[in-house]
Task: structure prediction
Amino acid sequence: MSPDSLSRRSVLRSAAAVGLSTSLLTACVTGGRDSAETPASRGTKDANNPFGVENGRPLEVVAFKGGYGDDYVKNAEKLFNSRYARSTIDHKGLQKVGDTLRPRFVANTPPDVVDNTGDGRLDISTLVSSRQLTDLAELLDAPSWDDPTVKVRDTLLPGVVDDGSFGGTCLCLNYVYTAYGFWYSKSLFDQRGWAYPSTWDGMVSLSEEIKKAGISPWTYQGKYPEYVSEPLLTMAGKTGGPALLKAIDNLEPNAWRTEAMTNAAEAFAELAGKGFIMPGSEALSHTEAQAAWCQGKAAFIPCGSWLESEQKGITPDGFEMAMGVVPPRTSSDKIKATGLEASSSESFIVPAKGKNPAGGLELLRMLFSKGVAKSFAQSAGTLPSVAGSADGIRMSSALASVTAAVKAAGPDLVVYRHRIWYAALAKATDDAVGELINGRITAKEWADRIQKAADAIAKDSSVKKYTRQ
Result:
C-alpha cells in the first residue's frame, strides 16, 4: 500500500497549502459566521454533554478515505450514536475532499465535520482567513471522553495543538502523529553486530564500516530532496535550539548562515563526499528508493513514520524495520540528543457554518478518545495523536521504535513553521538540498541560496507574514 496521502510529498503539499490562497475558494468564499448572526441552536449542557448536543439533530461527516481508510471515523460515529441514538449520521468517505466541498463552503452549506486531508484538500489558509472554521478551544477545554477530570488538550501528544493553530487560535485538530528519522533493518544490524549511533561522528564511523561490508550506507528519495531537508534541518535545530527555530521561521537576516545551519549542511554533504550514498539514488522516486532499501541495497534511508504502511507487501519477512533519531552534530547541542522532529497530520475541522457544530465538537471528542485511537493504532500501524493510545497493543518493530522515540523525546521537539507558512521557501530549501547532497554546491553556497530566498520573501509585501513567539 503506497497511497500518496502517506508519502512525504503529500504531507509537504498539505503543509504548503497553508501558505497559498489560489483555489476557487479564495475568490468566492464569503466570511464566516457573522457575530450578529444567530448561531446554530444547542441543547442543554451538562457534564455528559459539554457542548449541548441536541439528540435528534442530524450530523453530517465527510472523511478522507485514503491510506488509513475511514473506519476509525465510523468507530467514533458508533460511539456518538450510542449516546445520541435519535441523531442520524450522514457519512461520506471521499478521495477528493476539496473538489466536493468547495462549492458547499462557497454556498455556506458545509458539513458538520470534515477530515480535510489528501491531494484534493481544501485550502486551509483560505478557510482561516475567511472565518469558516470553528475555534476549537471549547473542545480542547472540555472533559476528555475517557476521564472527565482531564481536559481534551491534556490527552494530546506534544505539538498537536500548535500544529492546528493559526494566530494563537486552534482551528483544526490532527489525528496522526508522525515522527521523522533514519530507518534501518534491526535484523541486519543484529546480524552484523552494528548499533545505531548516538552521535554524528558515530554515524560517519558506522557508515565507513557498512561500506567496507559491501553495502551502500545510504540511499534517499532522490526525486524528492525534501526527504533529506527534514533531517538536515532537524540536526541544525538540535544544535541551535529554540532561538534558531524562531529566527528561521521569522525570516530573520542571516539566520540560514548561522554556524548551526552550515555545520548541519556540511554533515550531510559529507555523506556524498565520502561515497556513502548508493549510486543512482538521485534519480529514484520515493517508492524506488524505499524498495532498494528493503532489498538490502542500502543500510539507511530518511523518512517519516508512515514508511511501514507504505512498504506493506514489499518489506521481506524478518526485516524488522526501525527508526532512529537524527544524532546530534555537537556535544553542546541546545536540544537533547533524544529530541526529534515530530508533527501531526490528518486534519479534522468543524466548519463554522455547519448545521450542527455542537455535534461536530462532540464527535471529535469521541474520535480523540483513547479507545478509538487505540483501535486506529492497531489497524493502521501508526501512532495517533492521543497520548498513550498505543500502550498495551501488539506493535511491529517499526511502530515500537517510533513510540519509544516519541516517549524519549517528550516535549523536546524540533518543529519549524516556515515550511508551512512559506511554500516558496520550502521549495528553495529542497532544491538547494538536492544540489548539496549531490556535491554540486558547498554548505556555504547552500546557506547563501536559501538566505537569498528567505530575504526575498521577507521583503515581499504581497506575502502574508507569520510570527513565531
About this structure: The chain is about 40% helix and 10% strand. Residues 179 and 342 are 4 Å apart (CA to CA). Strands lie at 59-64, 89-94, 113-115, 165-166, 169-170, 173-185, 216-218, 298-304, 321-324, 341-349.
